[in-house]
Amino acid sequence: MFSRDSLKFQAVPLPDRHDMGDTDMQRAAERFYDCMRRRHSVRDYSDRDVPRDVIENCIRAAGTAPSGANHQPWHFVAISDPAIKHRIRQAAEEEERRFYAGAAGDEWLKALEPIGTTAEKPHLDIAPWLIVVFAQRFGQFDDGETFKNYYVPESVGIATGVLLTALHHSGLVSLTHTPNPMKFLNRLLGRPASEKPVMIVAVGHPSEDATVPAVAKIKKPLSEILTIHAPELGRTA
Fold first, then answer.
1. 3 state SS of 48
2. Is 221 in a helix, a strand, or coil?
3. Which CATH code is given to the segment(s) 41-207?
4. Fewest CB within 10 angstroms: 146, 194, 217, 237, which?
């Protein structure tokens, strides 16, 4: 919670600095890519427990993400209680049945066919943790007065990406789930109406027979996702 007294501008020396040579940077970037290409969205979970402090540290990492005006417009609710997880599954599946019954439209359903998804979401029960991500439209000073948050979708999207990366880095698998609408999550988890649920993230270890859709391994090549504008190197006049 912010205090008005802490919001005055003051420049401080950069507290953390990475002094890496070009070769070390290249190796670090390659190692990180090699790590992240092994990340998969997994729907088949074991019931192996995940320590609470692992989840807390991953969410702590997500909280370091940049945000509009540094307002940090996010809130994460981590759930391991089986009863609450089951209620979330029941409510999510109710919305999903409407989705697959026609609310999504033929084009959207056709696009999902290679992924193999259905209205059944057993992973919401089996995964040891569910993390629900909320976006906060408004913040609050320590005196109770509210203030507007800025770039909320962008900020929460970045923080969620950091969360998924942290979970993978910790040896866990995850799956994002976005039932529509999701207001039932405010009611079930006691969050205020000013917060918008963005997604449910199932977290845990993959089951012994876990699979992923073959199409999930098809990634666009670098040439399709990158355009570079830079001076040509080695060019002579």
1. coil
2. coil
3. 3.40.109.10
4. 237
Collapse the DSSP code of 119 into the 3-class scheme (helix H, G, I; strand E, B; otherwise coil) and give the result. coil
158 C-beta neighbours (distance < 10 Å), count: 16
Quick one: CA torsion of 110, 112, 114, 115, rounded to 10 degrees? -170
Torsion of CA 186, 82, 51, 73, to 10 degrees: 0
Q: At what angle do helices 52-62 and 152-169 cross, to 10 degrees?
A: 140
Token duo for residue 133: 């991500």
Residues 6+ apart with CB under 8 A from 13: none
Domain locations in the chain as residue ranges: 41-207
Is the pLDDT score of 235 beyond 60?
A: no
Instruction: Tell whether pTM > 0.90.
Output: yes
Residue 126 has pLDDT above 70, yes or no: yes
**What is the Cα–Cα distance from 117 to 211, expressed in whole angstroms?**
13
Convert the pLDDT of each residue in 160-201 to its tens digit: 999 999 999 999 999 999 988 899 999 999 999 999 999 999
- R_g of the chain computed on alpha carbons: 21
Amino acid at 125: D
